[in-house]
ABC transporter ATP-binding protein
Amino acid sequence: MSNVSIRSLQIQLGANKVIDSLDLEVDAGEFIVLLGPSGCGKSTLLHSIAGLNDAAGGSIRIGGRDMTYADPKDRGIALVFQSYALYPTMNVERNMSFGLRINGTPKAEIERRVARAAEMLQLGPLLKRKPGQLSGGQRQRVAIGRAIVREADVFLFDEPLSNLDAKLRTELRRELKTLHRQLGATMIYVTHDQVEAMTLADRMAVMKGGAIQQFDTPDAIYRAPENLFVASFLGSPGMNLFRGRIETDGAIRFTDGHMALDLSHYPFRQRPAHGQSVVLGVRPEDVEVSAGGACRAPVTLVEAMGAHRIVWHDYHGTQVAAIVQDDRPGGAFSLRAGQVSLFDETSTQRL
């Protein structure tokens, strides 16, 4: 396994500068997820690590070696694409071993590697089948197996589960995490699916506009988003946002004209100014629904989710989601002051 070090990377596609001066440090053996909406540059970054995009500036080092301008075959990487890209006339065993055979790997070594990958991915009974005889999930396992047999230093995954249905995505997500523990390899995984990111990542980089907005553990990003984009992008439903201002006469409070929330224990990075325009964010699970709630708001929708319900309130024109575990009626709620996030309205950065 190898670390990946990216410094001041610039990627230009035609006249469009997709990535400008990006830094990223991936430790050896880490599972890193690049998360963001379509067009944010996450796949471009992954393809640049793989050597499929030429760097216009900066450096990419893999295992301490400068790979900025190295050919993909010399980088010690294995790449799994969204499409399976299997050879339809070859059986599973030959699909998995094709690259090794082309490189002249000894037959005994090929057999060892294929057998090991097949055992990890439960492909043993399928080795003699052709892709047309496999389900979508089985085909993706074969594509992953083809990467595993390379015994690469770094594994790169470009949205490998996006073509699968929800049940298969859940199964393969679990298998990928188990596979990472078994291999102990460095893995970098691209997705726009926040559930995949939260469950798979040791650390994740949330991207927007070709730049990393925040790079930390999933829990740290979820609990303390660095800016409004991260706060609103992560979570389902997303973070509830209230616009208002700070009052510092006496205790520090947030007010929006309808409620006043004591922020005396909020870990401000620097003391806010009196009257400063801010956005207060709170996750739906930190909205407490109760008859005696401080904020009165009619219920507009209740979504039954099985183990819990999402109760939507119309709070002076703003839709506020609350996650409740029972059948209590809505109509009033309070915010857990110890779980809120505050952002400057102008800069959108966390306070």
